[in-house]
Amino acid sequence: MNQTATQEQQQLAAQDSTPDHLPDELLRLASYLCGKEVPADALADPQRLLALAPPSLDAAGRRALADLTTTARVQGALRRNLARAEGFLSGFAEHSPSPLWVKDRTGAYVMGNAALLGLLGVPNIVGKDDSHFWPEDVRQSLEEQDRAVLENGEVIKTMETTHDGKRHWLVHKFPIDVNGEPFLGGSAIDMTTEVEKERALIRHDNFYVLLSRLSATISRAKTLESLCLDTCRAAAHQPGIEIVDICRVDDTTGGLKLFTSASRDGSEHEWRDADSGTPDGMAVADWFVPELASAAMNTGKMQFSNDLHSGCQRRKIASCMAIPLFVNGKCWGVASFYSKRKEFFDHFYRERAGELGNELSYGLERLINAKELHRLARTNSLSGLPSRLQFEEEIAALAAANAQGVVLLININRFDELSSAYGNAAAIGLMREFAQRLRGVVAQRMVLSHVGIGRFALFYPADEARAPVDYIRETLLPLLQGAYHVEQHKIWCTINVGIASLPEDGNTADDLLVKAWDALAAARNVDERIGIYDRDADHALARQISLEAELREAVERKEFINYYQPKIDLKTGKLAGAEALVRWQHPTRGLISPAEFVPVLERTGLVIAVGRQVMQKAMEDWREWYDDGLMPPQIAVNVAPAQFRCDTLFEDIEHALNIAEAHLQPLSIEITESALVSEQKRVVETLSRVRNLEVPVAIDDFGTGYSSLAYLVTLPVDILKVDRSFVMKMTHDAGYMGLVSTIVSLAHNLDLKVVAEGIESEEEAKLLKLLRCEQGQGYLYSRPVPASEFAALLRR
Fold it and tell me: Residue 268 in 3-state DSSP?
């Protein structure tokens, strides 16, 4: 850069000494003053010029020569600067890639650079105006702009586009003043690349806005029609897109059939067939391009046509893009996009159309699969009948509409046995044949469903002409019972039907089916074909379930207490023992009889925990009485069959004995005959271990159970307790008198003691004494009493 500057200075120095750059007038004036011809280069050197002056030249003349040299130097510098500026401007204008020009006030060009000449395709532009280069409408627009610049001194910037739309220019027009004369300067910058980039960015943004809208549409669409129509609406408003339609493959013909369409002008349509036309009466052929869509369907690839020569005439469609849509690996249809512009679907759409197709295919697949899952979930695959889920929805709708009727639960009896005997295929065939027969007799307004293996449900409206029971007896039983020929087998089939009422027995399918099953099972137990739900029995069961929940809390809170009923020696009339009897001290209901809760304890297994509490409390009370010097008798505690099935029974007895000291023999246990029936070997082993602890064992309620007398010989027991039902009847029934006598004799022969329960009169006590019964208990002597009152008995 420094070398270039030095060369430029040398050139300027050479120009300083060049006579051609000096005005002729100054040279003639210097020659006149000197009286002889002065060389041109002397004007540049004041000393030399003065040396050429004659001696006679006065001071004023010498000053004039000095001024001439100064003027020559100044003018030389101005000429050099002007030439330099003109050189810069000329070089810049000629080599600028952007067109530059200057016009005079008449609109004629006074200057134009090479770029402008190249743009206009002319060798010279000076003296010509815009009418030589532009159409009339463009010329008028340019003249209006030029006038605003020249008259108002405005600077105008505009974006101009060529007629073919391929090039874009940023035009800058500005005023120029040359010695008071107005001129118009102009420049044009080629913005084609920038405009294309901006348009590409806008198309990119618009495209992904479309994808985002499509994603939102997919998430909220509930049907194929709404998804496709909303997609067409959104895509039809994309810049440059005129119409969008979606075709689907016809399952019958295998061809394409228009499904939905939308256009930029707002018209839209859903087709049921391809010949239905459009809302404005325009034929489908006015824009539909079947060849392109069919090619997309057949090849599975996107198809483009950017110069349509046939068809699509009414809307002047010039370009089309067809995108195949796939669902579960198969072509479902084709989405077609139409534009009025030729060459509209360029590489941008070719690169991104697949994203649009994939997104829409995903939405279609999601809806179709969801619809299929919905159908499968509501259809029993074995019989083709509606499934239990469908039945639940139907019953819910009926209940919401306050409908009345009954649910018939139809069960194929012994279906599992039939399946085992004839095979699974035959069992499935039987259900299908069964379902087919049912279809034939079920009215349209009834609701039929296959709710389980071998089970079918039917909602029978209340306003049917026949009563439900008559419908079953006259229609269902004759039709469904009998022989079925399935898989080369002749299968004989019988059924049971349970009936539950809507809304009396429930408002949901679950409630009604459960109660219909209870009715069916009850009917089957008594060998009946039809059962009607018993609400009273259900209420009792509900009370039992509620009671069970309360009992579990009672066990945790230890709400059970012991009452004690004395045992009397029938010979002496003295206190010989006592039986611990459980009572429930309910926090709100007070004292509850064991008859209400003990069966629930036994059925739920809670009797194990309660029995343990009763035994421990009995020994705690016994020890307290003993420590008070009351000489308490042996306390008998009942052991339920469930306790024998529990591995901790022996440990529980040992723990209770340790509370009261085992050597004092404070405890005996009583078991029922039912405890001896199941797992007899285990019971015998446990009882033997208990007796080794010197704990006597009594068989309670003897004579009412199912044990064999042969077992009695080998059982490790010490006492037989005669059931109170025998004692109550023996005073007025000789048969029972003989039965009690036999039990007492049997016990004595086996070296067992006898205790009679339920003694309520002196006559009963005397007879038992005559029969040599050792002990007795009952209301004659005392009702069961709390521990505190039993302690008072001991004191007396």
Answer: strand
Is residue 319 within 8 Å of 338, Cβ to Cβ?
yes
Q: Alpha-carbon distance 173 to 596, whole Å?
A: 109
pLDDT over 90 at 152, yes or no: no
pLDDT per position as a tens digit, 656-690: 999 988 888 999 999 987 766 666 778 888 888 88
Alpha carbons within 13 angstroms on the beta-carbon side of residue 227 total: 20
Q: 């024998």: which residue's tokens? A: 644
Residues 685 and 682: their CA atoms lie apart, in Å, by 5
State the CB neighbour count (10 A cutoff) for residue 299. 11
323, 307 in Cβ contact below 8 A? no
Q: How far is CA 383 from the centre of its chain?
A: 30
- Please spell the DSSP secondary structure of 196-210, one letter per residue: HHHHHHHHHHHHHHH
Inter-CA distances, 353 with 82, 199, 207, 212, Å: 62, 18, 9, 14
Task: Read off the tokens for 231.
Answer: 């997609």
Query: How many CB atoms lie under 10 A from the CB of residue 107?
Result: 17
Helix (H, G, I), strand (E, B) or coil at 26: helix
In degrees to the nearest 10, what's the CA dihedral of 77, 82, 88, 93? 180
Task: Scan for tokens 């340790």, then name that residue.
Answer: 658
- 8 Å CB contact between 662 and 694: yes
pTM score, whole prediction: 0.45
CA distance 499 to 523: 10
Q: What is the DSSP letter of 780?
A: T
Phi then psi dihedrals of residue 490, to 5 deg: -105, 110
pLDDT at 513: 93
What is the DSSP code (8-state) at residue 254? S
| Rounded CA separation 505/534 (Å) | 9
Please give the structure tokens belonging to residue 56. 């006679």
In 710-788, which ranges are E strands?
719-722, 753-756, 775-776, 785-786
Length of the chain: 796
Give the pLDDT score at 577.
94
For residue 625, give both structure tokens. 């009485």
State phi, psi for 77 to the nearest 5 degrees. -65, -40
Which ranges constitute the DSSP H helices of 96-188? 114-120, 136-152
Nearest to 574 by CA among 758, 754, 776: 776
484 is written with which tokens? 């079925």
How much of the chain, in percent, has pLDDT values that exceed 70? 89
Q: 508 pLDDT exceeds 80?
A: yes
Cis peptide before 19 (omega within 30 of 0): no
**Where do runs of H (alpha helix) occur along 605-716?**
607-627, 641-644, 649-660, 674-677, 680-691, 709-714
Residue whose structure tokens are 């690996």: 329
SS3 404: coil
> What is the bridge-based pairing of β-strands 243-249 and 489-493?
unpaired
- What does the alpha-carbon distance between residue 63 and residue 55 come to, in Å, rounded to a whole number? 14
Predicted confidence (pLDDT) per residue in 727-770, tens digit: 999 988 888 999 999 999 999 999 999 999 999 999 999 999 99
Which whole number is the average pLDDT over 362-369? 86
Distance CA 77, CA 60 (A): 26
H-helix or E-strand containing 706? none
- What pLDDT score does 755 carry? 95
Residue 330 structure tokens: 């198969």
Tokens of 590: 């007070």
C-beta of residue 441 within 8 angstroms of C-beta of residue 479: yes
Does residue 97 have a cis peptide bond before it, meaning omega lies within 30 degrees of 0?
no
Q: Give me the pLDDT at residue 112, please.
A: 87
d(CA 299, CA 72): 88
What is the β-pairing status of strands 268-270 and 482-486? unpaired
Asked if residues 763 and 731 have their Cβ atoms less than 8 Å apart, the reply is yes
